[in-house]
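README: folding subset

This subset contains proteins for which both the sequence and a predicted structure token string are available. Records are stored as plain text. Below is the entry for NmrA-like domain-containing protein (300 residues), shown exactly as it appears on disk.
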Amino acid sequence: MSAPIKNVTIVGAAGNLGTTVFQKLVDSTNFNLQVLRRPDSTTKYPTGTRVVDVDFSSVDALTAALKGQDAVIALFGATSLGLQPALIDASIRAGVQRFIPSEFGGDVSLPKNRALLPFLEKGKVEDYLIEKSKTSSLSYTFVFNGPFLDWGLENNFIFDTSAYQPTIYEGGDRVFSTTTLDTVANGIVGVLSHPFETKNRAVYLEDVKVSQNELLSIAKRVASNKSWQPRHTTLDEATAAADERLKQGTVDVHTVAPYLYRSIFDPAHGGNFQKNDNAILGVTAKDKKVIEEVFAKIIS
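--- output ---
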């Protein structure tokens, strides 16, 4: 049976998910927290937080920083995913027992998702962790939660309210699983609190199942005075345009997003989870009222 997890290191604690995870771990009072930060970072943390500035390219420096730690949570952004192998190697040297990599989205275990641009590096990290776990005491947990619900609405990702002209894919009736940042953070606490049940496996988190048309219906109810004019397209059209941008060497949010939409709205990519591990992790899912609450804040 896995030993209890007490000393936890967070990498990327200042990001969108990172700030929520950091606060949840603080609030739980069950863990001793340490934050790893780049030497040139100006991010500030609450008084009393143990912060270690470290060179993420140096396995030796990372190993020294991780001595005595039980778990590492990697919350890297898309451009920093490649830093994880060095962090994994250092975790093994330091005797860390659990590593949670930067997943937190679609199901990267599916071959169709692994072939998509946003998941290429994540798949490599998964494979690296799996192989390393076979010859060391380091274990892993992959966390899949679909697109972030609140962040995805607030940032016009899964449904664009900015001009009341949301882009609807494939008719809008395809159901997908989605999870708030708060619930994802609760799930991470659940992983650390249940090390045996979550060892060397993926866990799935979900607040609600919803479709774009259902989101449109809720948005219309919240803002009935607005002139909603949805624009319809297909995933093939969107990804074809992204392919052209890639050929031209343009890699930005407009290039990457269509592939993410493929992972969410294409049933072949598993965006509608057939199971979740909320109960194992002690997570209480939110209901669809949270969608109304977010729309009420962002639709003006």
